[in-house]
Amino acid sequence: MPELPEVETVVRTLRPHVQGRTLLCARELKPCVLKGGRPLASLEGAAVSGVRRRGKLALVELARGEERLFLAVHLRMTGSLLARKGLAAATPKALEALAGSRTRAVFGFASGNSWPCTTVVRFDDVRTFGHILAGGERELAAWPFWRTLGPEPLEMDAEAFRAAVRGRRRIKALLLDQKAIAGIGNIYADESLFAAGIHPETPADSLCVEAKDRLFRSLRQVLERAVAECGSSISDYRDADGNPGAFQNSFAVYGRAGKACLACGRSLVRIRVAGRSSVICPHCQRKPRTRR
Ligand SMILES: [Zn+2]
After folding, report:
1. Over the stretch 17-56, which tens digit does the pLDDT of each residue have?
2. Candidate list 3, 139, 191, 201, residue with the active-site label
3. Burial 30-58 (b: 16+ CB within 10 A, else e)
4. N or C: the chain end with fewer CB closer than 10 Å?
């Protein structure tokens, strides 16, 4: 569930906790580290040089001498990165003792190269679909998910969006495809399609240029508003400080099946598109005519 706005919020709230600090201790408590990368402990001793987002990935960038290292965290459905400061874990055992029942990995940071760890970041994950790739540039570049990630919707222009939105696939399936455009999931696909007045089953190729541009503007507006409101909390999502987002209070369609359309007052309905539940207004989002 964490999509672009939620991961962006996690990254923004995590950054002040770890930027410039040294990763003294990294422990995988339950399996969550992807094969193809290195063990978490191999990153110990590196200092955090940046925290950024790419698609739905939170990327912690580290440096150890000349070596550039990464922790790429995919939160998937219920993952969270929770930071706590003002602690003093003097040993790896003391750090591990700060884990909860849902903790799959724990990271201890200090302002220098010596114990104790004064900042702790937990990777908690109830449903355990999340995962971490650790390693250097080579491991990151060899990771198929990373290599095939599509462009960022908030960094592309209308022309690039038109080029990404093509083919016979339904527009919603295409928006959800991380290889086509990165960072969009069910919430922001449904919200932006409603805002643009486009039915999710519309084949991408049948959208005219004006409709594609309208969808691009809607998508950007929805994502920017959601980032400004620190994402949406519908179940477990919390930022790195443990705070929920507020954009769920602004949903026009997501989770509102049976309720009145905010534009026309008719009932919103739930349909299935590309194997995913979708909420639409059948009046404001007209179903495309089928060709015979
Ligand atoms: Zn409507």
Report:
1. 999 999 999 999 999 999 999 999 999 999 999 999 999 9
2. 3
3. eebbbeebeebeebbbbbbeebebbbbbb
4. C
